[in-house]
Every structure is written in C-alpha cells, then in structure tokens.
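I am still learning, so can you show me any protein sequence you like together with the matching structure tokens, please?
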Amino acid sequence: MTDFIHRFEPATSAGSPPLLLLHGTGGDENDLLGLGKMISPGSALLSPRGRVLEHGMPRFFRRLAEGVFDEDDVRLRALELGDFVSDARKQYGIAAPVAVGFSNGANIAAALLLLRPDVLAGAALLRAMVPLSDPPKAELGGKPVLLLSGQADPIVPASNSARLAALLSQAAASVTHKVLPVGHQLSQADVTLARGWIGNVVAEAA
C-alpha cells in the first residue's frame, strides 16, 4: 500500500458512508477520529497522516508561506493520496469515501476532488481555500460538497472560500456553503452542520 501512516476503523453500521479523515497542520492520523464518530456514527474511518513536515509538523503538502501553496507539490501529493485511497479501498473493502478535511486537510481534499474526482464520493471541507490557481477542468457529476467557512477566519479570506465554492459548483458538484460566526478553529456548529449534511447524503443515496 502507498506509504502513508494511517489508522483504519471498520464500520459498525452498514448504512453509513466511509470517511476519509484529513487533519490540519500539526495533526496526525488520530486527530479527527473523534470528529468522524460524532458526525457519522458507524462509518468506517480511514485516517492518514500527512507526509510533508513543516518545522516538524505533519501536513499534506508544502507551502511557501501562509496561504501560498507550492502548487506542484499540491498536485503530486493529491495524486499520491488518491493512490493511497484506491489501495485502502481494496485492502479494507470499503466504498469510495466522503472526505472530511480540516484546514490543510480540507485543502488537499479540494485538490483531490479537482485532480482525481473518481476517488471521493463527496467532501466536507472545513476552513478550505482554493488549492490550485489554475485547476484542471473537473467533472464532479453532482457529488455533494459541504464547505464551512469562518467569518472571522484570519487565514482564509471570505473571497477565497467563495471562489472555491464557485469553482466546485462550476465542476458540477452539489455545493452547500455556509459561513459561520467563528474563526479558523472548529466549533460545535461545524459538528452539527456536518452531521446533518452527511445524514442528508446518506438519505439521498438510499
């Protein structure tokens, strides 16, 4: 299997979609397991650790400065992550997962949607930015995407998250974008909205 340190927890409920949990800068494969269980109890959880280190902190791709991404690295790492997910699906016998990413993890999930749209069934992007200034033309065929932004986020400008929502909508994703009265950190509102959104995704797939 592609060389990602990761955790896998099998499903305990047949009706819940598998989740691909993607941590923020400085997180690891354990970071979002609790969040995954809160927003989709019973789902299989696949949680890799980012393979890039920034001052010793794991990330999913390199950046040149805060908010300035090494886009060649974004592309390379998104393709590596896509290969990992494909391998993990075979190894663990799971369907295409719904990505749940926070910050850097949300950005790599957005890149994965644009570069390898076949890999994910959808994505909940928490505090995501546009990952590529010149993205490929993707066809997302109505895949559900939840984008949760913070009104007072010092890292992600409102114009950037709005651009990401438009970009994914143009690629034919079914985008729900909500701006919450919070900063960059996750809040209870994120949990509540993500849980309700995943419930709707499951209901529509049934």
